[in-house]
Design goal:
heterodimer; A: about 450 residues; alpha/beta; TIM Barrel; 4-stranded antiparallel sheet; 16 helices; globular; B: about 45 residues; about 0% helix
Amino acid sequence: MTGSNYHFFSHGGLNILLDVPTGAVHVLDAIAARVFPYFVAGKITELEEDFATELSQARLAWEELQGLTDAGMLLSPEPHFSQRPGGGELKALCLHVAHDCDLRCRYCFAGTGAFGGARSLMDFATAKKAVDMLFSSAARVYEIDFFGGEPLLNLEVVEETAAYARQRARALGKKVNLTLTTNGFSLNKEARDRLVALNLDIILSHDGREKVHNAARPCPGGGSSYKEITRNILELVPLLGERYYIRGTYTARNKDFVRDIRHWLDLGLRRFSMEPVVLPPGSKMALTEKDLPFLREQYWQLAELALQEPFTFFHFNLDWEHGQCGARRAAGCGAGIEYAAVDPQGGIFPCHQFVGEEAWLLGTVDTGIVNAALQDRFRTLGIADKEACQKCWARYHCGGGCHANAWWINTKLEQPYELGCRLLRMRTEAAIYLKVKQALSLNCSEGDFHGKQKGYKQAQ
Amino acid sequence: MKHVVTVYSGEKNTAAKGCGQCATSCQSACKTSCTVGNQVCVNKG
């Protein structure tokens, strides 16, 4: 049951009610769950007729729902934000230090690493200019991700650039966070030692079970990559503490992706994301609407697994205490404004998924961002600018979705990728359910929260 | 007997205009369709 500013769903014996604008989450017992549709519709007369035998409890539930509404935690009004928080300064760069790759992944959005162009590496002079451009903005916290293709093919430039960025941040009294995304295939001992010395956050691509991984992520000659990459990852991860994520992709060929996550757990890995592949309809690996019921069950299974074993699944990380503010959530992805990607030749693009397409060129590291008309298209892509988002209960959880996915699937930046939206809503329901279960287990006996709400923020 | 338990009281979004210093969604951790719901406020985190 969903309205423009609430979402109600039941799973695992819990009736969960989300207030969309504030993100407040309530758990309703059976009678409150039945009363809620009457409350939303303002049908007090009908309530008295339909709940004749349990009217006193129904009225109490109604009063509690009214109390939450009066307190601004239910059916709350939609907030309005006139501009991006902070004004929209550039603060994050994706540096494509290598447009080449030592794998040939079947679903690669980057044309197996070359992004539709010649295979090439970024030189340090270009990387330095990119860092200088980034640091010329008024932001206080910067992010730089070393990306490709495969960035380990250009590790020396990664090292020089990381050192330079840190030196500049110190000199300017600012902070810079560095990450590197790698397929792990070239992570021999020397590369591993150099990577650890760089002290980065590292994203390691791996697809889970051997058969699944090898089918999706072969070597250039078609050979398998699982054994080498798995060994490399398992040798690296113990040296990283919590500064890593395993990043997997599921496709139509491994819709049972929880088994791939189970495989990671069996390997001793504890921090990961597993993302749905985004491919045009008709591709053999593309997910379709028919897959959704099965995938929904997968997310529920994953939530149950998370209750049994300690691990961090990136997309279940709903940080209720330290999450982002409303303005940030309404603004959505910062691509083209706060975030940009730089190709090996110094071309600037709205994000890594637009790299290689001349139509999306914002400028170069020599000129800076000069295509103001293109940049302006990205300024008005918040949830208020997207009709589909206005009706979606998950809008403050996704911020309007991925602009690149919207473009590549619909050729409209303002029209979100619907299949992705539906998957996100499933995933978000599972994440909320998990958080609720965890919260209740800390404070209550299983299946009985009445009168045991100590520690919760109660409705007045 | 309570019929409704509030597990999370929610952000007062109307008052939260933001400093703009937080991550911009997609540049970390997964590289495709990361969501703002997973990100942390740099001032609260």
